[in-house]
């Protein structure tokens, strides 16, 4: 996801090659739940600790990078980069990085994740350590091991859980302990939009995946079901927003509804898009919608705290 089309002139082992493997444009998906959880904790009157927020953000970003690196080398190792794939390029399949280089980077990333997790565990206890370990394991299992998650119809569900519920509730736990129904709804809203991003990816590649043995949701249940899945993950967050606002008696938390017209256009274009690389643009637009939705949710939380303080 590092470019809208296959990059040219990339030197093997270069920073640009690592950018293709790490896919920096996907890092928003990891940053969003940390920002949302921190904003909601601050809205509730929690004294947010700066270094905890920064380490939580670093840990979440690292999990996303590890997942991207594992995907790059995993796809190549399984011979999935065959003719007919319309997705964006992978560094190892193009020869810009060797599988050994990427695997060493993954090992280094796992060690770094453990180092980051130590002060968080000392601050918040064993639950924080367990969340960190499970998140790293999930990132590696998506395209690693004998039975990768990416070979099952559970990819979107996995993203929903780890980049929604786990990331939001885990960050909230670092700040304020276990979250309640309100925080679960926030995690679900964030996770649904993250899952929508993967739903576009798998919908785009369903024919290629079916030919190469990947049993994604779209490959197993067909394009009609994957269209329904995208619509569900796109719109359910907007259904959750009024419930969240009502629970906190805060009209400010309705701010994400301003994105609804954007979502309508995006959904219309998704349904009208013919098979092919045009779905790459739909994918990036979905990431941007998730970012805008989360930004407005954070802004609403900050406005609610400020309004309560002024009152």
Concise account of the structure shown:
With 311 residues, this protein is mainly alpha-helical.
Word description of this protein:
With 311 residues, this protein is an all-alpha fold. It has 13 helices and no strands. It is globular. The relative contact order is 0.13. The N terminus is likely disordered.
What layout of secondary structure does this protein have?
Blueprint: H1 15-22, H2 27-43, H3 50-77, H4 91-94, H5 99-124, H6 126-141, H7 155-176, H8 181-204, H9 206-211, H10 217-221, H11 223-247, H12 260-272, H13 278-310
Order of helices and strands: HHHHHHHHHHHHH
Largest sheet: none
Helix count, per DSSP?
13
Number of beta-strand segments: 0
* Radius of gyration (Å): 19 Å
Strand content: under 5%
> What's the mean pLDDT score?
91
Low-confidence spans = 1-6
Portion in helices: over 70%
Distance between the termini: 45 Å
Specify the overall morphology. globular
Secondary-structure-derived class: mainly alpha
């Amino acid at each position: 996801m590092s470019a809208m089309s296959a990059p040219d002139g990339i030197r093997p082992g270069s920073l640009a090659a690592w950018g293709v493997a790490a896919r920096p444009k996907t890092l928003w998906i990891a940053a969003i739940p940390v920002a949302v959880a921190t904003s909601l904790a601050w809205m509730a009157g929690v004294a947010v600790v700066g270094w905890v927020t920064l380490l939580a953000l670093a840990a979440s970003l690292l999990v996303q990078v590890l997942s991207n690196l594992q995907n790059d080398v995993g796809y190549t190792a399984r011979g999935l980069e065959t003719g007919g794939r319309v997705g964006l390029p992978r560094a190892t399949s193009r020869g810009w990085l060797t599988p050994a280089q990427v695997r060493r980077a993954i090992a280094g990333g796992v060690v770094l994740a453990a180092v980051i997790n130590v002060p968080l565990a000392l601050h918040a206890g064993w639950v924080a350590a367990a969340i960190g370990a499970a998140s790293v394991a999930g990132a590696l299992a998506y395209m690693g091991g004998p039975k990768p998650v990416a070979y099952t119809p559970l990819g979107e569900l996995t993203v929903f859980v780890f980049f929604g519920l786990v990331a939001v509730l885990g960050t909230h736990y670092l700040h304020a302990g276990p979250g309640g129904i309100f925080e679960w709804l926030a995690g679900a809203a964030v996770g649904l939009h993250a899952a929508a991003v993967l739903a576009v990816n798998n919908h785009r590649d369903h024919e290629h995946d079916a030919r190469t043995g990947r049993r994604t949701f779209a490959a197993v249940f067909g394009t009609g079901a994957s269209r329904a899945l995208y619509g569900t993950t796109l719109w359910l967050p907007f259904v959750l927003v009024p419930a969240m606002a009502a629970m906190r008696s805060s009209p400010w938390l309705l701010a994400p509804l301003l994105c609804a017209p954007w979502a309508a256009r995006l959904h219309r274009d998704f349904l009208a898009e013919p098979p092919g690389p045009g779905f790459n643009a739909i994918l990036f637009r979905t990431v941007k919608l998730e970012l805008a939705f989360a930004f407005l949710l954070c802004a609403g939380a900050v406005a609610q705290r400020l309004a309560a303080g002024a009152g």
